[in-house]
C-alpha cells in the first residue's frame, strides 16, 4: 500500500509539473504574441526546420505589403534578393548565438527591393526551434547615400562624371584589366579658344555650349566608355580594353563631328574645334597621374601643331 501510494504521488507530481510546464509555455507564447502585436518594429517568427513564417506583426505586414504575408504558406527564402545573404546570417546565428544590425537587401513577393537592418535570435515556440527576426527599413537612407555618392562624382553643369569620379573609374580599369586584354586608353580633350568664346558671348552662353558638347560627345561614344568633365573646358574619356589605334579612330570621329556641328545658343550658332591627346596603357603604369600626364603631353602637341587635331603619346 505504501509503495502504491508513493507511485501515485510521484505520478501526480509529474503530471502537475507537466501541467505547469505547459502553462509556462502557453504563457510564454502568449507573451510573445503580445510583444509582436505591440512592437512598432517589424517582427517575424520563423520555424527553423523549413523556414516557414509562423507569426508576423502589423509592422511586418506593412513593410512587405498586406498580401505578401497573408496569401498562404510564406517562407523566408522568398524575401532575400541574394539567397547567399540568408545562409550567411544563419551561419552567424549558429556561431554567435545572435545577429545584430546586419544590413541585407530584401524583396517583397511583388519583387520590390527593401534595404533593411536585421537582428535575429533563436527561441523555442510551440515546442519547435524558431528564429525571431526584427527589421529596421533603411531604404530611404540608402537612397540618400547613393544620391550623395552620385553628387560627389558628378559635374553639376553637364551631368558627366567629375574629376573625382573619373579618377575612380580609371583606377578601377587599371586594377581590373584582364590578362591578355589591351589596357585602357585615356583621351584628354580641350575646347580650342574657349576663353575667347566666353569673353565674346559671356559665361552663360559658354555654359550652354558645354552642356550641348557633353551630349554630342556622349552620343558618339561606345557603351562602356566613360566621359568626364575635368574642369573648365577640359574633358576626358576612358576607353576600356582599347588599343591606341582604336582610340585614335574614336578621337577622330569625335573631333570631326564636333568641328562640323553647329552649336545652337541663345547668342546664335557657335562653332568649335578640339585638341585631343591620347595615352595608351598597354604597358603597366605607376599611377593615374602618370597616365593623365602622358595624355596631357599629347594634347599639348596637338595645340602646338595648330589645334583641331589629335595626337598619340609617344616617348
Question: Can you count the helices?
Answer: 9
Which word captures the global form? Answer: elongated
The count of DSSP E runs of length 2 or more, i.e. the number of strands, is 12
CATH topology of the largest domain: Alpha-Beta Plaits
What is the number of independent domains?
2
Describe this structure in words.
The protein is of the alpha+beta class. It has two domains: 18-142, 2-Layer Sandwich (Beta-Lactamase), CATH 3.30.450.20; 153-312, Reverse transcriptase/Diguanylate cyclase domain (Alpha-Beta Plaits). The chain is built from nine helices and twelve strands. A five-stranded antiparallel beta sheet has the order 2-1-5-4-3, with helices on both faces. It has a five-stranded mixed beta sheet with strand order 7-8-6-11-12, sandwiched between helices. Helix 6 (194-201) packs across helix 7 and helix 7 crosses helix 8 (244-260). The protein is elongated, with a radius of gyration of 33 Å. The termini are far apart. The relative contact order is 0.09.
